[in-house]
Each structure stands twice: as C-alpha cells, then as structure tokens.
Amino acid sequence: MSFSSQVKAELCRSSLSRRCCAQAEAYGVLLYCNQFTPRQVRIVTESAEFAQRLPALFQKAFRLAFDRMPEEGAGKRTFQITAPDKLCALFSAFGQNPAESLAHHINFAVLEEEHCRTAFFRGAFLAGGSVTDPAKRYHLELATAHLSVSGELRALLLEAGFSPKETLRKGNSLTYFKQSEAIEDFLTAIGAPLAAMEIMNAKAEKDLRGSVNRRVNCDAHNLDKAVDAAQEQIEAIYTLEQRGMLAELPDKLKEAVDLRMAHPEMTLSQLCTLCDPPVSKSALNHRLRKLLGLAKR
C-alpha cells in the first residue's frame, strides 16, 4: 500500500456526524473528481476505503445514491451519477445553475464554518490528492481540471494559515506543498495525524542518518590527515637518521622521535599521554614540526 493510500484510509475513518460537513466534503470530492458536469458525475478511485465511504457520504449529504457502482474486486473503482434529477440536486445544493455557468467556482458561502472548510479540504484530497512517501521526498498535491477552483482553493488555504504553491500539469491545475512542516500541518488538520507523525519520524530519521554520515566522514577525514602527518614525520626521522643528526637532538626531540617510531599508528593526542611527563598536544606538535623543519633543511 502506498503512503497516499495509507493517508486516505486514515481520513476515511473520520465520522460523518454533521450533514453540513458531509456536504462540504462531498463538494470537495465533486470539484476534484474525474468529472463533474451537467451530464454526469464520475468518480474513479483505487482506494478501497474511499470507495466504501462514498455511498454513505452522498447519502448523508444529499439523500441520493449512485447510478453506477463499481464491480466487486475491481482495481479502479468507478462511481457515476447520470440521472438528471440527481445532477440538478447536486448543482442546486451549492447554488449553481449549469445552464448559466460554463466554469465551476467554489461557493464560499457553503464553507463559512471552519469545520466545513476542513471537510472540504478532506474531500478534495480524497478525490484529487496524493502525497509522496516521506522516506523519499516531501510533496503533497491536489489536482483538479477546474482552473478557477484551484485558485479559489489556494485562497481558502491561505485564509486557513497555509501557504501552498500552484502550477499546471497535463491540463490539470495543481495546488501543492513541498515543505514537510506544511504537509504535516495540512494532514493533521484534515484528519490524518498518524500520517503526519510518520512524516515527522521519517524526517527525524533522515536528520539522524545525515548527522551520523557527516560524523563518519569527518572522522575518516581526520584519520586520513593523522595518517598522512605520521607518515611525513617518520620520513623526516629517517632523513635525520641518514644524516647522522639524531644523536645531536635535544632530549625532548629524541623522546618525540622514539615515541613516533615506536607507535606510528597513534594520533597526536595518544602520543601526548606517553610522554614523560605527559605534555599538551600543542607542545608535542611543536616538537614534531621542529623535526620536520630540521629534515627539510
């Protein structure tokens, strides 16, 4: 099951208690479904939970049944209303006269209450929405064939405190979010808090994995630098030995030579603790750099 399917399954667990909210949700479904014209309503979905919710939703909202129901076990489930009296009832419920208007618009008067607006957003997502698996990337969109509706939905979302973006794709108008926080807030608002929590968990896991990778890369880089430095110091010591200069070195430098040759794999910090008495990292680094300088000369 895709993440979008999980979200829609969670949304369909919301109760249909108020008729006004049922009408608002059905309004969102109609404006974001496959076809809503004076000739027919056609809703196609792959979500079994949404398909199970639709008959109850339209019965609660309009006291009507679909003229065509999907076949049992179908992958894509199709619902249709073609009866003229039913179509007339749907248009009338939202103050529209199909003979007078060529384009759909959102009737804001139907969505004055906050709970009705939330139900409208839920219906729009159930019919025309999708959300990407948060383990891959963050993207939620609502697609409709009605350009005016898309712009008006954006206005409603802005009024509700969201900041969506808009674009066009293959003849459809898209309202979308790409920020994980915005997607979390939207899903929580329309009734999918568990899906929102899953996005939060995925984001936390990504951040943790990124932090670990950065730490590992940093440690590996530091180890490479330490190995290169130790190799350079050992080569300097061999150079001084070939020139017969080791015997002339001060005691502190001789100690640094002995420790580095005895422990070529150790870091500077580890060598400091073996000095007698122990010295600071900067002090031992100064001695080793002095050896490098002598070898270069």
From TrEMBL:
Q: Which GO terms describe its biological process?
A: cell division; regulation of sporulation
All copies of the Sporulation regulator WhiA C-terminal domain together span 212-294
The residue ranges of the WhiA LAGLIDADG-like domain are 118-209
The source's domain of life comes to Bacteria
Pfam families in alphabetical order: HTH_WhiA (PF02650), LAGLIDADG_WhiA (PF14527)
Entries under InterPro entries matching the protein: Homing_endonucl, Sporulation_regulator_WhiA, Sporulation_regulator_WhiA_C, WhiA_LAGLIDADG_dom
Q: Name one GO molecular function term.
A: DNA binding
Q: What does this protein do?
A: Involved in cell division and chromosome segregation.
Q: Which PANTHER family match?
A: CELL DIVISION PROTEIN WHIA-RELATED
The entry assigns this protein to a family as follows: Belongs to the WhiA family.
| Protein name according to UniProt | Probable cell division protein WhiA
Q: Which organism is it from?
A: Lawsonibacter hominis
